[in-house]
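Lecture 7 notes: from sequence to structure.
We start with the chain below.
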Amino acid sequence: MEHKARTKKKYPILTYLCCLLVVSVLFTGVTFSRYTISSTGNIATPVALYDCSYSINDISSTAFPNIDYWLTSNGNQSAISTARTVRFTMRNYTQKVHTDGTPYNSVSGVDVQGHIRFYLPAEIADNLAIQVAEVDENDSVLVRSPEIVLGELIYNAESSDGYVDGNLKDYSDGTTVHTDSFKDYFDNGNTAVEESLFVSGGFGRLEGQLGGTISAYEDNDGDKNYETDTGTGINFSITASTVSTPYSIGFQRGESATDYESQLFLDLEEDIDYYTIDINLPTMYFTANLAGQHTFVIYLTLTERLNDGDFSALWQQRENDEIYEDGANVVYAQRVYDDRVETLTNNDLMITAPETAEYYYTYLGARVTGYHFTQTARFTDVAEDALANTIVRVNCEYNGTGGYNLTLSHVAPIS
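Predicted structure tokens for the same chain:
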């Protein structure tokens, strides 16, 4: 496949808007459940003649299994984790309606470059492999990118307990990376695409904040111009940041092993490292005044089991102080006052708001901001004729002044 160089007219105002169609790929599930999941976006723009739209057609799974990719048995390794997929369609037009009610397609009057963006915590990005394919009009899958193993681009080496922060790669002088050197995970349709990538940039920390960007583009012929290459023409970037992030850890409640109440969620906030991955492909380019659409499939593979203390922390010791094989053990919170740190002997103390504004609790290094849980409540209709049950969420947020704010919200419909 040959990619011809294009001459593009520059629109200054579109420089601000970037003319990018951003597709946010967000999952929820066991692996990601601690993080606040949100999606925002607005494709409307006052710029004349600019139209585009997208739709997510299907997602193969709403959760990643938190298991090792490789199963080792009798010294042999077998792949047991399959890729999760997202299928979506990009268009350079939007469907509108004339004043007489007849529908029509409003086609963009300017060139539009499609764009895929992932924004996810580093602990997930460190263990993620991404590959992009396109689906043609016959529903055949065409591989459009090599498999990108993010951890191997970000880090120099892997330690016994996973990728370590001290080994961030530096591409400041620019270098060529061959994707066939990456560990071999799932490749779509067993049709592996391996390419040479020219990579530049790097990451670093300043006062504890992770930052920096690495950029990469396909450069099979070594001329450092991805638009004239005969490969996939992919170019992408990985940008690092540290963001104050709210998340929650759930604890099972009950008086015994068989007594199941709704979970108590401890609400926390901590500076979390994030990576933003932006991917561009030539087939995501749309020519002005020519209606078009392309359907893509993103293959996402979790390459390693995530080992984090949040997954195995216990609120209190199990019966008979027994330590189970899963390694779960009690983690006690800490109370912080100025430079003094006191480890609590009972996590129930966290259910009470800190006494003054100078005090606060931490749990596994994160600041405790409150807690929430769900509770069944009785209600009646307007005429008070019938009693029924509904479920409400009880939110307790510490206000930072020695008190708390208590709010109730419905999480189940009243009918």
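Points to note: The chain has four helices and 28 strands. Residues 12-308 form one domain.
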